[in-house]
Design a protein that fits this description.
- By secondary structure, the chain is α+β, with helices and mostly antiparallel strands.
- ATP binds at residues 136-143.
Length: 1053
């Protein structure tokens, strides 16, 4: 018979999986690329592998090659460079997400999902907060990237029911914030006009459970003014285009953006002063005249459908209908405000009567001149919009807030999508702040990338020489330094009394920081620069390039003041949102609010702190052209970005050290087939394996270094050579496998190679066992953390384990006897079951015990039961009696006088005990016998039957609570036959009285007294026995004529 050697399982073990995929059809070209083999056709997927790494041209060429192939992502080490494709690439499907999930960063082609997944996994495995910093200029794709990352987490992270809503809310916060905070600019049709930092909180299971958003400096001026070709915030157009008829009627709006000056007018307030009237019918003349800033319709934006998305998102986030209405009311009011005309009897007045806030505003007309009134109106619009935006962010935060276990148990991934570096024809205060923010981020990038690189070398024990790079700290200082920084100077001008103006600010700049290498003004500039600068401009040499800022409006914008009476009016509004935005406390606070720039500076400093505390990943976005066009790769523009993003420096730093690094295990796993000693598996230490392997490959000492856990390879070509060798090896291995697949004739000889395969399998199994062990440990830890939760996939393994081990322990430690009350402590999950088990087990043990009992013992126990009922916790010497067996009788037949027995006749003797009787008078002690028959108790003196008490006549029995043996049998006084109660003493008082109680059926008639017992002596006289505790037992007549009994205390109570 022939025997097949199956190819598949063997081959699987022989070759690392990714490489196996790389062999074969065209469909796997992407993974070939990842295996670095297709590097020439689509460039290198990691710039560090670029041969000519100092050449900017080579860098850009690589970007271009990839861009043309729609490969928009490339790494520089762990930094992702992304080029905006300006078209849909179909690389964001669920399948793509799956492909990147849990896969090693380098095993798949570069993608923003790989960065997302890498951060997520680092967070999960190291439990360290992460942040992903997305930078790049306006329109480079930052916001899109942040959305992709969020979507990736929403789709791929584990979830529960509650988490679903959180995921929805996280996702839906985007369209809402974009509607209110984004606008079309010249650079980007959907430009974020605010900075956004978003924390996504993950619980122990790795499920997103909450979020928090920090917003930075909304460009409020856009509400009242937009540059030519730009728009106001999207929400205005969405509302007007998409709002239902009813809604618009309620808000007093018309479906025509041309109606609203804030949406169509030139930013210059003078336009309104000219007194033009907006006309409802579109008039081309009019359009020509006013269209400089007018841009309500944009082909790439569908306001109507966006409106639907926003409306739905608002509901998902948890806005009530009323809140939405109030919010939109504010938006509408801003539009109405913009239409207020002063001095003219504008048709806009019609709205004034419908809107209370505007009515109040109308009162301002008198004290202010036209220009002041207009600027007051605009200030109000900006304040209302700005504060509403902040309110909106807070509202979203409430909706995203995680209500579960404490926050410190969560891990966080922060996403920073903040306005990119921006240069326009005219740059104002906003651009100044935005670009300052970018300086700060660049500073952070420099610190963290360089620092982390150096840290790694240090951690691995590799010596390395620092690389020079431009540190932009000098520019940050120029802007933010206390007293001498630009912000301080601006604040000073804002706060000082007197005739401060934008121009005096400029002069002050010249006087204070005029000599700074990164600042110049028209006055200070050389002739060439002066030509391209306005007189009211100052120029900053940012790390990203030169920007001229026009000082006009700097003071006003920095002061950001609103007339006090306008604030008062706002506080009185019926609109609930506005009353939250304008707090009365603010009116009382006489302290001057911080200036806008200082507030921004402080919030940026806080942001830096937040980011520094986390492990960063970077996405560096590049804009391929200024025309927002697909497929256009503008060299000049890209070179500029590559330069200021510091990508070349980034690459240099990465390369100056080592281009390539891998953990020993990964490296060995991938290349072990290239060396006989390491193939198919290496038994010794990993470092030795790698060392053996690279020596066999002929690596020269300067080409690589071995760190503590990683190998560092200096040149890409070394790695390429190794990759090529691997490729060749795979083919030959493939052939050999095929060869062995051929039926081996007759006696199935095990060739040496088959032995090698077998060793491969063993190694593989070992690895599998290791993996399983690691999994078990991980599951166990997770289970421990969740042990108090309801049973869920995370803890079921742990709970089962705990149950199993408890039951096993219980089995070994069961109580041995009915008296053994020990029982192992049960884990929380088993408390109830354990209690049931304990009861069952006890019952069972008792049942077994009872079954084994003989009648005699049973009788004994019954008597002990009675004794316990009567005396337990009542008489001091009871505990001492418990372990002593009750005797059947204390006097046998010979010890009782036959005459006595005779006189008792047929009455059966049940118990007999020697007692002491105390005379009623004088309390003389006399030895007697107490006999119990079935009908009576008899007191006997030798042969004389001294007294017989029928049980029926026994009124009661009294005894003290002390340890003495004295007791009184009470008999009825009217019974003439009796000479009164009998005072006796027994050395076995518990036993004796138990017998009496049982024989006479008087269990309930035994009185246990404290202090004294009164008894009758016949003829109506009474005697008293006093009981006291003392050092020893003493029974004697006391001077007061009582019988005094002293008994030692045996048990402390
Ligand atoms: N990965 C991408 N795929 C397709 N189009 C993109 C991508 N990134 C950006 N874009 C396009 O570029 C525009 C601007 O991107 P955006 O993320 O808003 O820029 P930024 O936030 O950097 O200013 C988007 O509206 C979109 O049309
Ligand atoms: Mg953006």
């Amino acid at each position: 018979p022939h025997q097949f050697i199956e190819l598949l399982p063997f081959a699987n073990h022989l070759l690392p999986l990714p490489s196996l995929q790389a062999v074969g059809s065209d469909g796997v070209r992407i993974s070939m690329e990842s295996a670095l083999t297709a590097r020439d056709r689509v460039g290198v997927q990691d710039f560090v592998l670029l041969e000519n790494h100092t050449s900017e041209a080579a860098f850009i060429e690589n970007l271009r090659k990839r861009f043309k192939e729609n490969l928009i992502y490339t790494y520089i080490g762990s930094v992702l460079v992304s080029v905006n494709p300006y078209k849909d690439l179909e690389i964001y499907t669920k399948n793509h997400m799956e492909r990147y999930r849990g896969v090693n960063f380098y095993e798949v082609s570069p993608h923003v999902y790989a960065v997302s997944d890498n951060s997520y996994r680092s967070m999960r495995t190291e439990r360290r907060d992460q942040c992903i910093l997305i930078s790049g200029e306006s329109g480079a794709g930052k916001t899109e990237a942040s959305k992709k990352i969020l979507q990736y987490y929403a789709v791929t992270c584990p979830a529960s029911d509650q988490v679903e809503t959180v995921k929805d809310r996280l996702l839906q916060s985007n369209p809402v914030l974009e509607a209110f905070g984004n606008a079309k600019t010249l650079r980007n049709d959907n430009s974020s006009r605010f900075g956004k930092y978003m924390d996504i909180q993950f619980d122990f299971k790795g499920a997103p459970v909450g979020g928090h958003i920090l917003n930075y400096l909304l460009e409020k001026s856009r509400v009242v003014h937009q540059n030519h070709g730009e728009r106001n915030f999207h929400i205005f157009y969405q509302l007007i285009e998409g709002g239902e008829e009813d809604l618009l009627r309620r808000l007093g709006l018309e479906r025509n953006p041309q109606q609203y000056q804030y949406l169509v007018k030139v930013g210059d307030t003078r336009a309104s002063l000219y007194g033009w009237k907006p006309c409802k019918t579109s008039n081309s003349m009019w359009c020509f005249w006013v269209s400089q800033g007018n841009c309500p319709k944009v082909s790439s934006i569908n306001d109507r459908s966006d409106w639907k998305v926003v409306r739905k998102a608002l509901s998902v986030i948890g806005f009530s209908e009323d809140e939405v209405e109030e919010l939109l009311n504010i938006i509408a009011s801003v539009l109405h405000l913009g239409n207020i005309q002063y001095g003219g009897e504008d048709s806009g007045n019609a709205y004034i009567t419908t809107d209370t806030q505007i009515k109040y505003l109308a009162r301002l007309k008198s004290p202010l001149n036209l220009e002041q009134a207009s600027s007051a109106r605009d200030a109000l619009s900006k304040a209302v919009y700005g504060r509403t935006f902040t309110w909106l962010v807070n509202k979203i935060n409430v909706s995203l807030a995680y209500k579960g276990s404490p926050l410190w148990m969560c891990c966080i991934i922060g996403l920073l999508d903040i306005y990119g570096f921006e240069v326009f024809q005219h740059n104002s205060f906003e651009q100044f702040c935005i670009n300052y923010c970018n300086e700060k981020l660049q500073q952070l990038f420099i610190e963290l990338t360089l620092k982390s690189e150096q840290d790694e070398y240090e951690a691995e024990g590799i010596t390395w020489e620092p690389v020079q790079y431009f540190n932009n700290k000098i520019i940050c200082d120029l802007v933010e330094e206390k007293f001498k920084g630009i912000i301080s100077i601006l604040d000073e001008e804002c706060l000082r009394p007197g005739d401060a103006s934008d121009i005096t600010f400029l002069e002050k700049l010249e006087n204070t920081v005029g000599g700074h290498a990164h600042l110049t003004t028209h006055k200070l500039a050389d002739g060439k620069t002066r030509k391209v600068m306005g007189r009211e401009e100052f120029r900053l040499l940012h790390y990203a390039g030169e920007v001229n800022y026009n000082v006009n409006g700097f003071l006003d914008k920095n002061n950001d003041l609103l007339f006090r009476n306008l604030k008062e009016v706002m506080c009185m509004s019926d609109n609930k949102i506005l009353t939250q935005c304008f707090d009365r406390a603010e009116l009382k606070d006489s302290k001057r609010p911080e200036t806008a720039a200082t507030q921004f500076k402080t919030s940026l400093a806080k942001l830096m702190e937040i980011l520094m505390s986390k492990e960063p990943s970077y996405v560096r976005c590049i804009k391929p052209n200024d025309a927002k066009q697909a497929g256009r790769f503008d060299d000049v523009l890209i070179r500029h970005q590559v330069k200021y993003l510091g990508l070349m420096e980034n690459l240099r730093v990465r390369r100056a050290g080592f281009a390539y690094r891998r953990h020993y295990e990964t490296f060995l796993q991938r290349y072990k087939s290239l060396c006989p000693e390491t193939w198919p598996s290496w038994q010794g230490k990993l470092a030795d394996g790698v060392s053996t392997l690279v020596k066999h490959l002929g690596y020269k000492p300067e080409e690589y270094k071995l760190g503590r856990s990683k190998i560092f390879i200096r040149f890409p070509k070394t790695l390429f050579a190794t990759e090529d060798a691997l490729e060749t090896r795979k083919h030959s291995l493939g052939e050999r496998v095929t060869y062995h697949m051929v039926l081996v004739d007759g006696r199935h000889l095990l060739s040496l190679r088959t032995v090698a395969w077998w060793r491969g399998i063993l190694a593989c199994r070992r690895a599998q066992r290791k993996r399983q062990a690691a999994n078990t440990i991980r599951r166990f830890i997770k289970g421990f953390i969740y042990r108090h939760n309801e049973r869920c996939p995370e803890n079921e393994y742990f709970l089962d384990y705990v149950r199993y081990s408890f039951l096993m322990k219980l089995r070994r430690n069961l109580p041995k006897s009915v008296l053994d009350k020990s029982w192992p402590t049960a884990p929380t999950a088993l408390i109830e079951a354990s209690e049931q088990l304990r009861k069952l087990y006890m019952q069972n043990m008792v049942w077994g015990y009872c079954k084994r009992i003989n009648p005699e013992w049973k009788h004994q126990l019954e008597q002990k039961m009675v004794a316990s009922e009567i005396f337990k916790n009542k008489k001091d010497n009871y505990p001492q009696s418990v372990p002593k067996l009750f005797m059947g009788t204390r006097l046998n037949g010979e010890e009782i006088n036959p005459k006595v027995l005779q006189s008792l006749g047929s009455e059966k003797m049940k118990y007999a005990v020697p007692v002491t009787k105390y005379d009623r008078k004088g309390y003389k002690a006399r030895p007697r016998q107490l006999l119990l028959t079935s009908n009576c108790a008899v007191i006997v003196e030798e042969a004389k039957l001294k007294q017989r008490i029928d049980y029926a006549a026994l009124k009661g029995i009294s005894v003290s609570s002390l340890s003495d043996g004295v007791f009184v049998l009470h008999v009825p006084t009217e019974d003439k036959k009796q000479k009164g109660d009998v005072v006796l003493q027994s050395d076995h008082i518990i036993e004796t009285l138990t017998k009496v109680a049982i024989c006479a059926d008087k269990v309930n008639s035994i009185n246990i007294n404290q202090g004294s017992i009164t008894f009758t002596m016949g003829q109506g006289k009474e005697g008293i026995i006093d009981f006291t505790s003392g050092s020893e037992l003493l029974v004697a007549k006391a001077k007061n004529g009582h019988l005094s009994v002293t008994a030692p205390r045996l048990n402390s109570r």
